[in-house]
Specification:
heterodimer; A: 479 residues; B: 308 residues; alpha/beta
Chain lengths: 479, 308
């Protein structure tokens, strides 16, 4: 089920009404049923995978907690990781590896007997497997208590607001909330709905409108160049941001209506002043997951300098691989790893090269440079293959006078371009204010009723007038 | 709880009222302009006042293009009949049902309806309830209500509303009434293959075809109730025999036996490529040939039988 669908508009109020109607001690049953139904609306049989992950990790964690010696604890942890990574590997990476292995064997004229399989990627698999794995790892490390209630643990794994595209929650944050009694709070209802409204605006108006131009250019790279590909890349930067952060806002908002607090996943990443700052603002739940479960176990910062750079590179490379089974994602991840290394080297050895000397222009230039570097990497993220990515990047240089004008993408796409750019601009203005003050959760609630309602009604009308409501999935559903 | 329900209802009323009001206001810009038949793809912008029409032409692009631009005036003059065109590019039975319903509810009447029927319209919701035909029309409560009744998808109802905010609606002006002069030089099998792929995006699902045949029966009943004789014509094309055409012919034969509805298969009637603007639609010369050789004799024969 998609958030931006009529089914969800019916499903959500019904679930909320039932949630507050029934006694608190039975709510976990309702949430579990609702979450499984939510997932099964996509493909019913794939609920077996979530069940398998839930059962294995529930018993693995109990085994870890029960075991006296480290060997048995490691065995249980290995079972959990092997199951989760095995499921992830088979559904996400097997076809890619199989295809590439076949290509290598064919080029060497060696018989390759493994057949090609058409494997459908289960929605959200990268998210819920990582969420449950972090639970067993934390139990192993002793940083979280084992959960004895199977049903409530199953709710933690499958909680519908964040099941298919995050935020990837830590058990220490979400699991205790499943045990809490959540009394109805009018403030939670309003602030949750406000967050959802903002999320729907970003997704349906900004992301999906930008997508028409992005898809046209990136699916036909040979037909566009110069300002066209630059603008399409710029629009993709906002498509992916608004698509993903919009989903996160809807997830956080819908959870808040039920009294649950989910972690913030995005913090206005395009206002970052360097790449390190960018990664503290972009997909925070995933970047902290990789920090805690990949970077730090590799040694983190507590190693020699060359080893630290190696750790950084590997962490970002793995992050790229997490995003998808394509060489483009690996290059994207590797590029960000290289960015981090260069930035670290610059900070250490080239302290004189600093924007601070530019005074008031420093911050805007830092933000612009960071955004440009991120956009260059996004080309690899979005392109269908490495060849097309390079074609798009090299086309940036072919700017010509004829590309300037309203009909840069033809008359069919002119309007989508104007709508996208207008609302990207409005969104950036609001987010600029958010850098100083939490506009959504702090400033708006303090305004008078007419002002608040004017904001809500205007946003709703903008969504009705300009939002796209065809069956456009969230980008991160593909992960 | 009561205050939450009350606030929610109030919010809904405010949003819907403002959205509705803006939608109606945005009509004014375009509706005030004068559109001659053939100068727009909108039905309502032409049929502004209720009146009687000798002939209503129904169908998809075959009906629309046959009477497009200068062709409409030519047909009316040569036949000596008043013609209303209720057709859209790629429209199946659902759009025709909605607009026919609107046509009659607005007080229009007709003597005869000639439906340019295509096989492909029965095999996808893309041509039916998920069709964006409403974007051609002004936003009115009446049409919105009919669209809901005939099952147009919520997504396309939104698209209908949203289309009033677009420049192609706000700046929509009558097109010049001139002849359609494009021709097909040689038959291009690649273009034919591409066209057929576009016409059957969901393949040939017989269960879906059954559902749309049932809707077509509803359309037929509507015309009968309004004392309008219905006649089916399978229009000429260079695409050859279309997938699903056998089933369509069997269905039309069944209608003939059950309800006395006549039909004519003209799919192979015109084979000269120079009479086509593309592999599926006649140009003005082709429409003239079609008019002289088939349409006028059909209309004349109906006149003789008392249908006109």
């Amino acid at each position: 089920m998609l958030f931006n669908s009529l089914e969800f508009l019916i499903f959500f109020p019904l679930v909320i009404a039932a949630y507050y109607a029934i006694a608190s001690k039975w709510r976990w049953i309702l949430l579990l049923a609702a979450s499984y139904y939510f997932y099964m609306c996509w493909k019913p049989e794939y609920i077996v995978l979530i069940l398998a992950s839930t059962v294995i990790d529930y018993f693995s964690a109990k085994g870890i907690a029960r075991s006296a010696d480290k060997l048995h604890k490691k065995l249980y942890l290995s079972l959990s990781m092997a199951t989760n990574l095995g499921i992830l590997f088979f559904f996400k990476y097997f076809s890619f590896l199989n295809e590439n292995a076949r290509a290598v064997f064919d080029s060497l004229n060696i018989f390759y007997g493994v057949p090609m399989y058409d494997i459908l990627l289960p929605v959200g698999i990268s998210f819920y497997t990582f969420q449950t794995m972090s639970y067993t790892i934390d139990v192993y490390r002793g940083t979280t208590k084992v959960e004895h209630h199977f049903g409530k643990f199953a709710v933690f794994v499958s909680f519908f607001p964040q099941l298919v595209a995050g935020p990837i929650e830590r058990s220490s944050h979400l699991l205790p909330q499943v045990h809490e009694e959540h009394k109805f709070s009018y403030n939670n209802l309003v602030s949750g709905l406000r967050m959802m409204l903002w999320g729907f605006f970003k997704k349906t108006v900004v992301a999906d409108r930008s997508a028409t131009i992005v898809n046209e250019v990136f699916n036909n790279p040979g037909e566009y160049e110069g300002l066209q590909t630059i603008l399409a890349t710029f629009l993709f930067a906002f498509q992916i941001y608004c698509d993903f952060s919009g989903y996160s806002d809807i997830a956080i908002g819908s959870a808040r209506v039920m009294g649950y607090d989910l972690m913030i996943n995005f913090r206005r990443p395009y206002f970052a002043k360097n790449l390190k700052d960018f990664w503290s603002r972009w997909h925070i739940s995933l970047s902290t997951w990789f920090r805690d479960y990949v970077y730090i176990p590799l040694g983190g910062n507590r190693v020699s300098e060359p080893r630290r750079y190696f750790n950084l590179f590997i962490t970002f490379l793995v992050s790229g691989i997490w995003h998808g089974a394509n060489w483009t994602f690996m290059v994207w991840g590797a590029l960000h790893g290289i960015y981090q290394i260069i930035e670290s080297l610059k900070k250490q050895y080239f302290k004189g090269l600093s924007f601070s000397k530019l005074g008031i222009a420093a911050r805007p230039l830092q933000v612009l440079l960071t955004f440009t570097l991120v956009c260059i990497a996004w080309v690899f993220f979005r392109a269908n293959n490495l060849g097309e990515a390079m074609s798009i990047l090299t086309s940036f240089a072919h700017i010509s006078k004829t590309q300037f004008g309203l009909y840069i993408f033809g008359s069919n796409l002119a309007e989508d371009m104007i709508i996208s750019l207008t609302f990207i601009f409005i969104m950036l203005i609001i987010e600029l204010f958010m850098e100083r003050k939490d506009v959504l959760n702090d400033w708006i609630p303090k305004q008078t009723t007419p002002t608040r309602w004017a904001f809500y009604v205007s946003l709703t009308l903008i969504i009705l007038a300009f939002g796209k409501f065809d069956k456009t999935e969230f980008i991160y559903f593909a992960f | 709880m009561n205050s939450i329900v009350a606030k929610s209802l109030l919010y809904l009323i405010i949003v819907v009222s403002i959205a509705y009001g803006i939608g109606l206001l945005l009509n004014i810009v375009t509706v005030e302009r004068s559109f001659q038949p053939g100068s727009t793809h909108s039905v309502m912008l032409v049929l502004k006042e209720p009146q009687h029409y000798d002939i209503v032409v129904l169908g998809s692009s075959h009906a629309r293009i046959t009477l497009d631009k200068l062709n409409h005036t030519m047909y009316e003059e040569r036949l000596g009949k008043s013609i209303a065109n209720i057709s859209y590019h790629g429209s199946g039975v659902v759009p025709i049902g909605v607009m026919s319903d609107y046509f009659f509810k607005e007080g229009n009447t007709c003597q005869t309806a000639i439906y340019f029927i295509d096989a492909f319209i029965f095999y996808s919701d893309h041509f039916n309830e998920d069709n964006k035909f409403l974007t051609n029309e002004p936003f009115t409560p009446g049409l919105l209500s009919l669209a809901i009744q005939w099952g147009v998808t919520p997504n396309k109802l939104f698209t209908y509303y949203q289309s009033k905010y677009r420049t192609d609606w706000l700046l929509h002006k009558p097109v010049k009434l001139e002849p359609i002069t494009n021709t097909v030089e040689t038959i291009d099998t690649q273009k034919i293959r591409q066209r057929l792929e576009n016409m059957y995006p969901d393949g040939l699902n017989q269960e879906i075809a059954k559902d749309y045949e049932a809707i077509l029966r509803d359309v037929i009943s509507m015309y009968k109730q309004n004392s309008c004789n219905l006649y089916f014509v399978i229009p000429p094309t260079l695409l050859g025999k279309l997938p699903g055409q056998e089933r369509l012919l069997m269905f039309l034969e069944k209608l003939k036996q059950e309800e006395g509805i006549q039909f004519m298969d003209l799919s192979q009637a015109i084979t000269d490529p120079s009479l086509y603007k593309d592999h599926d639609h006649l140009n003005t010369r082709g429409s003239t040939v079609f008019l002289d050789k088939y349409f006028k004799p059909l209309v004349d024969s109906m006149h003789t039988k008392g249908a006109l």
